[in-house]
Amino acid sequence: MDIRDPATAKIGEEIFPFEMETVPEYFLKKAEVELFDTPDRRVQGLREIKELVKNDKHTKNIEFEDDFLLQYLRVRKYNVARAFTQLKALVALKKKHPLMFTNFSYDTLVKSAYDKVISMLPWRCQDGCVIVLIELVEDVRRACMLYLFQSLRNPMTQINGYKVIYDLKSNPVRHLKHCTPEHLYLVYHSTQECIAARYKEIHLIIFHKTPETLLNYFPKAALPKQYGGDLQNYDTSEWVKKIMAPENLEALGGRPRQMNV
């Protein structure tokens, strides 16, 4: 695959919106090359992982939708055993920390969007990655669960993954109180070992000499103005409202299987 330069990427050409209904041909080929993702592999992989789900005591009573299982197959490049191991890690996480997956507060999450606590920026990077901006960490664990799970419904995000901008300079004192070993481990374990996400880059603003150095990695059109970009007045609250719909929350991470009586 060719290398797409962030300095020359343009909206409508290399830069695509965060929400997409179809996957462009370029990225379908990328998925085949990088993830071994083909129609035949999808059919075979789904059949094999469903068999593992059905025969394992930890997962046999949980129902997973096909598009959810595909996230794990893609992130593990169709190594079904590794995909299933990661899926079981998620099941264990839900059992141990149920509050991370339930009782989402609509008002709190919409406020987090308005306050830009955590934002899925409206334009993707030139290589298709979703750009995640985190400026505060309060209740970020629960917000991350919902944001990552719901954004991973999109095949474009499954194929290309995420690039994260973590602004530790925004309020260092408020960040510091959340940096306990327990909190940091839980964030790492849940996002890296349980959720089927591809993390391509993580940028800590505190390590960048100036925010403008982000332009070496991100298209200017896709970055907010405070980081040297052109983007202003971005607001993800409408997307948050959509993902908070009951039908979208119902199967978050799998639902109990309906038993025949």
From TrEMBL:
<protein>
    <recommendedName>
        <fullName>CRAL/TRIO N-terminal domain-containing protein</fullName>
    </recommendedName>
</protein>
<dbReference type="GO" id="GO:1902936">
    <property type="term" value="F:phosphatidylinositol bisphosphate binding"/>
</dbReference>
<feature type="domain" description="CRAL/TRIO N-terminal">
    <location>
        <begin position="65"/>
        <end position="90"/>
    </location>
</feature>
<dbReference type="InterPro" id="IPR036273">
    <property type="entry name" value="CRAL/TRIO_N_dom_sf"/>
</dbReference>
<dbReference type="InterPro" id="IPR036865">
    <property type="entry name" value="CRAL-TRIO_dom_sf"/>
</dbReference>
<dbReference type="GO" id="GO:0016020">
    <property type="term" value="C:membrane"/>
</dbReference>
<dbReference type="InterPro" id="IPR011074">
    <property type="entry name" value="CRAL/TRIO_N_dom"/>
</dbReference>
